[in-house]
Amino acid sequence: MAKYILKRILYLFLTLFIIATITFFMMKMLPGTPFSNQNRMSAEQLKIVKAQYGLDQSVFVQYIRYIGGLLQGNLGTSFQFNNEPVTALIGQRLAPSMQIGAQAMVVGTIGGILLGALAAIRKNTWVDTLATFISILGLSIPSFVLAVLLQFYLAYKWKIYPVALWDNFQSSILPTLALSALPLGTVARFMRTEMVDVMSSDYIELAKSKGNSSWGVVAKHALRNSLIPVVTIIGPMAVSVMTGSMVVENIFSIPGIGEQFVKSITTNDYPTIMGLTIFYSFLLIIVYLIVDILYGLIDPRIRLGNGGKE
Amino acid sequence: MDKILEVKDLHVDFDTYNGVVHAIRGVSFHLNAGETLAIVGESGSGKSITVRSILQLLAKNGTISKGEVLYHGDDLLQKTDKEMDKLRGNKISMIFQDPMTSLDPTMTIGKQVAEPLLIHNNVSKKDALKRAEEVLRLVGIPNPKARMNDYPHQFSGGQRQRIVIAIAIVDYPEILIADEPTTALDVTVQAQIIDLLKELQQKIGTSIIFITHDLGVVAGIADRVAVMYAGRLVEFGSVNDIFYNPQHPYTWGLLDSMPTLDTNESDRLNSIPGTPPNLLNPPKGDAFAPRNAYAMEIDEEQQPPFFKVSKHHYAATWLLHPNAPKVTPPASILNRYEKFKKLGGNVK
Amino acid sequence: MEQIPQIPKEKFRLIHDENNKDQEKIGTPSLTYMQDVRRRLFKDKVAVVCLALISIIVVISILAPIIAPHNPNAQQVTMSNLPPKLGNLNIPGMNGYQNMGGHMVDAYKQADAPKGTFYILGTDYLGRDLLSRIIYGTRLSLVVAVLATLVDLLIGVPYGIVSGWKGGKTDTFMQRIVEIVSSIPNLIVVILMMIILKPGLTSIVIAIAITGWVTMARLVRAQTFQLKEQEYILAARTLGEPSMKIATKHLIPNLSSTIIIQTMFTIPNAIFFEAFLSFIGIGIPAPNASLGTLLSDGQKAFRFLPYQMWAPAIILSVIMIATNLLGDGLRDAFDPQSSEN
Question: Signal sequence: where (chain B) (predicted)?
Fold first, then answer.
């Protein structure tokens, strides 16, 4: 197991390096400069500014510098936003993003598990139909559509929640709801399929023949066995929550990194785009790694390595 | 002898995509205390469904449409789910066919074996685990103390079947239903499991219903045998009755396709031609008639009743009707009749 | 049991001479696999409704130039932000009235619209007919989805087949690439591509396809791996059939269910990405309409003119729901075990 984790961490760095390289050269391929908006700059000024950012050197030198900086945890300096270091930008904006992201993951995953389990236990009844319908809605309605609708009806029209304000927990409820729909739908669907499968397996029949009540079978055997594979989709869920957060943060004016990313795109702030790209990738790869290790820990067939005789 | 279990006129239907399948069409038999009853038949004859009906462990689309299952005279089919839960794994328990898939892959075997005790008896977890360890030793798991915390995938197929048996007997059930417990195993392991079951039966005095399609296995374990075909019993009697004085052409076919010590190298094993009927539309007459070389007109029109052969031996074939012509069974069956005479039996 | 029924003797005639005629008869007529799939699919009411919905939407999109009542990009500033109006039918919400300072006012009269002018779904801030824009927008979104799916098929399927079929070192190498591509969050790749390429239809398709093929390749590879070991493929190989022929005659037909089902999930995914990119402003450039740009425009005015967002939101959601459900239905139809037990 330790060897496996070490190997995975090595891969993590390799992947990050590849991403950084690709991002860097892609940005260099871009036509125009980030300063083309500020057309009042004279040629002299432009030269000074370029030198200041190291843009007067050859691409290769810039690349080495960039990677070197990365190794020291330096993601570069933003062209906009008062020349702040990208790491500082991320630092200021991480907390709100993390909060709604984590909340949405928790709500979506737990809600999805309950919904999916309920549908599987009450298979082919109206409960199943309703649960399936909810999960399809969650899967199909894009989070930004949901966010706008929630904002309009709950906040603007019925004034239950603040429209676009970021201060306390209450203001995080609507963005969390909007973001959790997709994980909820996905997890519910996955959970239902897994559990229906498990419920028809031989060991469930044996558990029933031991004298377990229907509830006992579910609680002691079916739930755990169907939950283990659900862990594997937490990674992709994190990706979708991240995607959603970019627009949802924008709609609710949450000062998070998603909003920052979209802003950087629209203002051609390349160092910030690059920095955030690498940061996002890092975050996701870490999530994938944790999920993998977690999966190994909770599934005895993997945990015990090659002790099996299959 | 006490009848501890009696199944009367059992009918089971399955609702399928193509229509209602009449899987069991009037099966009656009983189980005496302390004996082993084997139910034999080819795949799809309804053996498994019959015994699953006893514990009411049918798939969701299956319904018992008619019949009684009397356990000490009590009809189990009238019992509530809760009352059935109290019997399952406690008074009546079951061993399943495939040991590779019958154990919960994410629970230690100690816990799995102890589970019935914790459900039915008011015992502490510690005592239950201790008892589980004893039973694991009883079924021949080496070093059970250390292996209690292992998971199913760490055991071989034969060992897993021993664990499944341990789960079934941990609460000393009165009736043990073994649904093809040896089919998925190697031949040598099969013999070990049969021996283990026989040994356990003596130690804990349980009655066994043993389901198999393998007549060779039957000879080694059963006291009485019931032969099943297309959702009905066709013949039942003691092991000697069935093996040496079979009356139903289907039983003849089964025995004729089984190699014995007397089979010479040059002898060809015979098979029964054709396939079992479609139980979506069960035949009006004897379901075996289309495959039966001895079929008569009456077989296509009317289902044969059970004719008495000897005190405990009955067969459902029109050949036993007084008006039926005298037919000559296959040669291997005639050999068996000879043996039956030597054993002191009366051959008709 | 003890009573012996009285039956006439002639009934006991042996009939074994003719006994073999029926025994091989199978009870139900046999269907080919595809017939069976079709039968199961058409028995699934939800799938049928979704199929019908999707067909209608596709037909309308194809016939957009004929059906759309106006030019989708024609601006008519005097007619801006008119609410929906359906002829002279006085349906609330569809009668051309809108709330202005607490009063319901006939917006068409205020805009001095000529008598008989009406926009079924209203107009946007530039006076463009929303219905026409939605019809054209849906068409554009569907084009993106179809193209992205096609690229997905053209890269993913051959990649998966080659990787699974060759096995060994080739497979390991090809899988490494898949691993790296899939460990980069696809959204980021899409966004980077969108920044580098000029915004537009082609770049969206390229951006979506560049990450989308990975899932298809994985599924096809896994399936090919299994199929490779099947007896009939082994037989074909032993008989020396050329690889190309095996691939087209044996592999593709057996892979078709996997491919079709995955395609049904690629389509909503592509539609979502287009909408997402256009929504954050790096997708389809103005003045062309797509569901994403319509949503983005609608969102800006949503507080005051909610109808401008409702219509595209509903169409987008309906397409997403219908394709997802049809995908489910197809999976059940191809693999009855997944739903029946």
Answer: none
Chain centroid to CA C283: how far? 20
CB proximity A4 to C under 8 Å: no
Q: Which of A200, A178, A40 is nearest to A107 (CA)?
A: A178
Comparing alpha-carbon positions, the chain B residue that sits nearest to C26 is B278
C66/C302: higher pLDDT: C66
Q: Which residues contact C21 (CB under 8 A, 6 or more apart)?
A: none
pLDDT band at A207 (very low <50, low <70, confident <90, very high): very high
**Confidence (pTM):** 0.82
Identify the sign of the CA torsion B34, B35, B41, B46.
negative
What is the percentage of chain C residues whose pLDDT exceeds 70? Answer: 82
State the fold for domain C45-82+119-339. MetI-like fold (1.10.3720)
Label residue A307 by pLDDT band (50, 70, 90): very low
Residue of C nearest to A134 (CA): C321
Confidence of residue A203 (pLDDT cuts 50, 70, 90): very high
Minimal Cα distance from C307: which residue of A?
Answer: A149
C-alpha R_g of chain B: 21
Q: What confidence tens digit (pLDDT) does each residue in A151-186 have?
A: 888 877 777 766 656 667 777 888 899 999 999 999
| Cβ contact A6:A310 at 8 Å | no
Residue A83 has pLDDT above 80, yes or no: no
Q: Where are the domains of chain A?
A: 86-265
CB spacing of B154 vs A209 below 8 angstroms: no
Neighbouring chains to B with at least 3 Cβ pairs closer than 8 Å: A, C
Chain C residues touching B329 at Cβ < 8 A: none
CA angle B101, B107, B110 (to 5 degrees): 105
Contacts of A210 in chain B (CB under 8 A): 88-89, 93, 115-116, 119, 167
Kind and range of the H or E element at C207?
Answer: helix C201-228
The predicted structure's pLDDT at residue B320? 87
Tell me whether B259 touches chain C (CB under 8 Å): no
More confident residue, B225 or A52: B225
Confidence of residue B147 (pLDDT cuts 50, 70, 90): very high
Alpha carbons C196 and A32: distance in angstroms, whole number = 11
Q: Is the CB of residue B228 less than 8 Å from the CB of residue B55?
A: no
Q: Is C60 exposed, middle or buried (0-12, 13-18, 19+ CB in 10 A)?
A: middle
- Locate C13 and state its tokens: 């005639």
Q: Which residue has the tokens 């045998």?
A: B225
Q: Which residues pair with B95 in a beta bridge?
A: B178
Which CATH code for domain A86-265?
1.10.3720.10
> How do residues C209-235 score in pLDDT, each as one tens digit?
887 888 889 889 888 888 887 888 888
pLDDT greater at residue A305 or residue A106: A106
Query: Residues C324-340: what's their mean pLDDT?
Result: 75
Nearest to A172 by CA among A203, A191, A150: A150
CA distances from C219 to C157, C158, C159, C197 (A): 9, 12, 11, 29
Q: Which residues of chain C neighbour A141 with C-beta distances below 8 Å? A: 317, 320
Domains along chain B?
3-222 (3.40.50.300), 227-342 (3.40.50.300)
Confidence of residue C341 (pLDDT cuts 50, 70, 90): very low
| Among the partner residues A140, A145, A239, nearest to C187 by beta-carbon distance | A239
Nearest-Cα distance to chain B for C41, in Å, is 13
Q: What is the pLDDT of residue B311?
A: 87
CB atoms within 10 A of CB C180: 15
